[in-house]
Amino acid sequence: MLETSKYEAVIGLEVHAQLKTNTKIFCGCSTKFGSSPNSNVCPVCLGHPGSLPVLNKKVVEFTVLMGLATNCRINEKSIFARKNYFYPDLPKNYQISQYEEPICEHGFITIEKKDGSHKKIGITRIHMEEDAGKSIHDFGDYTMIDLNRTGTPLMEIVSEPDLRSSEEAYLYLTKLKQILTYLDICDGNMEEGSLRCDANISIRLKGEKKFGTKVEVKNMNSFRNVEKAIEKEIERQIDLIEDGKQIIQQTLLWNADLEDLFPMRTKEEAHDYRYFPDPDLMPVVVNEDWKIELEKSLPELPDEKRNRFIEEYKLPIYDADILTSSINLADYYEKILRVTNDYKSASNWVMTEVLKIVNEQKIEIKEFKITPENLGELINLINNKIISHKIAKDVFNEMLTSNKSPNEIVKEKNLTQISDSSELEKEIDKILDANPKDVQDYLSGKEKVIGFFVGQIMKATKGKANPQTVNELLKQKLDSKKTFNNV
């Protein structure tokens, strides 16, 4: 087994987020996913001679919002550059991006690790660029090109090399996705390519200041694959060093099926792309007034919402973390609270029953059948002692298959909880008379047997008996028998 504790990894991530604009970055073509191949194209995104790009203002606004949300400096002036490279699926054969003068720089986000410690991860830059098209290799000896994605607006977020493990990379990515979706500027869907990540990985001896030779890893289509690929590459580099071999600067592709890395090409340097300012696009100017206007439009961000949930609703940190993990889940929870003020019960129902169904059915919370208002109503029915918690589970399951409110279901099925003492006493007497041995066990000091009686009464009343009332009446009757026997 290799001695790995003497090494540390140095990891930087380049994240590409596809922005949720209706049209492309430099033309009016639709960005709709899933359209027929090569249907959302025009002379501009096809790179026809004489066509000129016009910048989509929404792309600038979205990028500035992300910069503000990640503590970046927003540069008053930024410029577009041409990145020259052979792109089989980008007809111009260059990509319009930003290089020397990006729109956002020098930010950070904070991640919380499993051990409860916090770490600040620096963000070098956030810039705007256009996406390339898609090469499809499912046609035997041929590759087909779909140019619908060409010109789709991208935001590239480049981290500082501050990450030291696959766990930190996973947490950083999760936090970025959370912010992007809270801002509603990217849907964060890695499987559809809306969020893509490349990792630059090197290793060095602990305590060493100089960076090792970095290797880029691409083609990771889920957060877990990012984690696995980074771990695999760290192991590979340690093996090479331990065997006295050199690490080559190159780009590797991650194969998720084989869970292995394969060489793609030797890694290019910035000068290989021959960047130069794009002559067809003016500098982007974000003055102070525009920046302040955008700052005012920022929503409540994940960390703020989490802290508010803890403070305002007195929720445990664990609950708040889960409920604010996505903006839609947080909204669902708060809509429940418009109906009920039982914050903890609402949290419990969402984290157990609701998320169980959401995960089983692999749906988004927006697609969940039960409205938050109806779930709040169900919680009130329990708290007002109209139905028991057991009956509430049955009502919940009924709500999953119908559009009825919990009140309607309770009335239709006559599920109202029995709290009337005289009615419950009759049932208790029947159960006690039918189980004399268990009664004697209780009188002999085996008080746990009371749970058996409660279960029998709940069964006899089809779960409609008020458990608290049943417990009180049972204890009274059994204790009176105990007193009678002692006389």
TrEMBL record:
Keyword Ligase: yes
PANTHER family: GLUTAMYL-TRNA GLN AMIDOTRANSFERASE SUBUNIT B MITOCHONDRIAL AND PROKARYOTIC PET112-RELATED, GLUTAMYL-TRNA(GLN) AMIDOTRANSFERASE SUBUNIT B, MITOCHONDRIAL
Keyword Protein biosynthesis in record: yes
A molecular function (GO) term: glutaminyl-tRNA synthase (glutamine-hydrolyzing) activity
Highest taxon in the source lineage: Bacteria
Protein name in UniProt: Aspartyl/glutamyl-tRNA(Asn/Gln) amidotransferase subunit B
Record's catalysed reaction(s): L-glutamyl-tRNA(Gln) + L-glutamine + ATP + H2O = L-glutaminyl-tRNA(Gln) + L-glutamate + ADP + phosphate + H(+); L-aspartyl-tRNA(Asn) + L-glutamine + ATP + H2O = L-asparaginyl-tRNA(Asn) + L-glutamate + ADP + phosphate + 2 H(+)
Subunit structure: Heterotrimer of A, B and C subunits.
Pfam assignment, any one: GatB_N
Domain Asn/Gln amidotransferase: 331-478
Organism (species): Stygiobacter electus
GO biological process: glutaminyl-tRNAGln biosynthesis via transamidation; translation
Alphabetical keyword list: ATP-binding, Ligase, Nucleotide-binding, Protein biosynthesis
Similarity field: Belongs to the GatB/GatE family. GatB subfamily.
Function: Allows the formation of correctly charged Asn-tRNA(Asn) or Gln-tRNA(Gln) through the transamidation of misacylated Asp-tRNA(Asn) or Glu-tRNA(Gln) in organisms which lack either or both of asparaginyl-tRNA or glutaminyl-tRNA synthetases. The reaction takes place in the presence of glutamine and ATP through an activated phospho-Asp-tRNA(Asn) or phospho-Glu-tRNA(Gln).
EC number: 6.3.5.-
InterPro entries, per the entry: Asn/Gln-tRNA_amidoTrfase_suB/E, Asn/Gln-tRNA_Trfase_suB/E_cat, Asn/Gln_amidotransferase, Asn/Gln_tRNA_amidoTrase-B-like, GatB, GatB_C_1, GatB_Yqey_C_2, Gln-tRNA_amidoTrfase_suB_CS
